[in-house]
Design goal:
alpha/beta; 8-stranded mixed beta sheet; Rossmann fold; 4-stranded antiparallel beta sheet; 33% helix; 3 domains
């Protein structure tokens, strides 16, 4: 996209794009740069993705066309984004219609109306904003009971966001974080990405922390395919052991060494429908003294399914929590129910499918950025 110089003459019929902060700025900019008779082709809200646009101050993209009579372009600040527009690979021609504004509209009142429509969904009250971020009714009720929430009633929205974010941090920090024990198993229902989450953690242990690690693949009455994990362990130079049916009388022999070695177990998927099917998992964990039990949850599941999986994990003695499929989740607010109300220590977020990356260990900071940017 090219921008005309301060002394250039605008070509009649040329189309330009402006990114401004308000309706008033849009109107003033068009009049000053393109003249009183410029045609407004479209107005739409831009800037930010998902819920972040609610916090970072929405901007307006205005597409306007120079009238047939030539108009000299006045000097403009360097931060203005103005230039010939080529949306979707081509020039926005007269007759096109975006955001409900006719290409033949030259009335600035229409620009104001369109801009107001673009901003109509931006909440101005903290409760509404939190609800749109995905906060549950229970979490909203808990936050509204905090003294800091009531104190922000008459404060600017960004002040309220910062205060509520600080309160959430304080709640989390009061709960002591438990380190992972030397023997840790990864638990989760089928399809949550349990083995992928384990691979991400193994990569962290080997590459970032350079620890000695062994891995165990366990099977009971349900299959637990090991091909992917076997290849991954071979690539990392890790020992992969197997625990199969018929060997229940043999314990898993492993003693952490002086280098800080750990044993990680990948167990078959736990059952949410029939808790009795998880008895074999529970006996194995207790007998083999797996003090660390990481519950893996698919964040894209609906809240009721997440609660069922969380309860099943707690029944198996889960100690830590991992969320996967964050790249598929638009509103992260529902995660606070498990980070605040739950008793499990947050371990990491799996933010993508990569086996050696997309792993966010600062879970609270990451969720705050997505639900309360600027907190």
């Amino acid at each position: 996209m090219t921008s005309p110089s301060q002394s250039s003459t605008l070509q009649p019929g040329a189309t330009y794009r402006f990114v401004v902060r308000s309706t008033e700025e849009a109107v003033q900019t068009i009049r000053e740069r393109l003249g009183e008779n410029a045609k407004v082709l479209s107005v739409r809200q831009v800037g930010g993705q998902g819920i972040s646009r609610l916090f970072r101050g929405p901007k307006l993209e205005v597409i306007a066309q120079v009238p047939e009579a030539e108009t000299n372009l006045s000097p403009y600040p360097p931060e203005r984004d103005i230039g010939t527009v080529a949306p979707r690979g081509g020039i926005l021609l007269p007759g096109s219609d975006e955001a409900g504004v006719s290409a033949h509209t030259s009335d600035y009142a229409a620009a104001r109306a369109a801009a107001a429509m673009a901003l109509r969904d931006v909440p101005t009250k903290l409760p509404e904003l939190l609800k749109r971020s995905g906060f549950s009714e229970a979490m909203l009720a808990r936050l509204q009971a905090l003294p800091v929430f009531a104190a922000q009633e008459d404060q600017p929205l960004h002040h309220a966001i910062a205060e509520v974010g600080a309160a959430l941090r304080q709640i989390v920090q009061k709960r002591p974080a438990r380190p992972l024990p030397a023997r840790t198993a990864f638990l989760g229902s089928p399809g949550v990405g349990r083995t992928t989450a384990l691979c991400k953690w193994l990569a962290k242990e080997v590459f970032s922390r350079q620890r000695m690690v062994r891995v165990l693949k366990a099977e009971f009455d349900r299959p637990n395919p090991a091909e992917g994990l076997a290849v991954f362990c071979e690539a990392l130079g890790l020992t992969l052991d197997y625990f199969a049916p018929g060997h229940d009388d043999n314990s898993v022999s492993f003693t952490p060494n002086d280098a800080g070695g750990s044993l990680y177990a990948d167990l078959p998927g736990l059952s949410l429908r029939t808790p009795g099917e998880n008895v074999a998992l529970a006996k194995f964990l207790d007998r083999e003294k797996f003090a660390g039990r990481v519950l893996v949850l698919n964040a894209a599941y609906d809240p009721s399914m997440l609660r069922r999986a969380y309860a099943a994990g707690r029944d198996l003695g889960a100690t830590h929590l991992v969320f996967t499929h964050l790249d598929e989740l638009e509103h992260w607010g529902k995660l606070w129910d498990f980070l605040i109300e739950g008793e499990l220590t947050p371990l990491f977020l799996a933010t993508g499918p990569s086996l050696t990356g997309d792993c966010e260990e600062a879970m609270i900071d990451a969720v705050l950025r997505r639900t309360l940017p600027g907190a």
